[in-house]
């Protein structure tokens, strides 16, 4: 696949890396919210 369509493959790879980054940031923010909620009790 990478040999036949390198531009498409790199494009998909960059999109998947962006999605993983967003997932990481989202999970970190959720963790901070949970910690803040526990600290409030």
How would you describe the overall organization of this protein?
- The radius of gyration is 17 Å and the shape is rod-shaped.
- It is an all-alpha fold.
Give the helices and strands, then pairings.
Blueprint: H1 6-40
Identify the notable features of this structure and list them briefly.
single chain, 41 residues, mainly alpha, 1 helix
The level of helicity is over 70%
Using DSSP, what is the number of strands?
0
Number of helix segments? 1
User: Which parts are unreliable, with pLDDT below 50 for 5 consecutive residues or more?
Assistant: none
String of helices and strands: H
Summed over residues and divided by their number, the pLDDT gives a mean of: 80
Question: Mind telling me the C-alpha Rg?
Answer: 17 Å
Please report the distance between the alpha carbons of the first and last residues.
53 Å
The major beta sheet can be summarized as: none
Shape: rod-shaped
Relative strand content = under 5%
Structural class: mainly alpha
In short:
With 41 residues, this protein is mostly helical. It has one helix at 6-40.
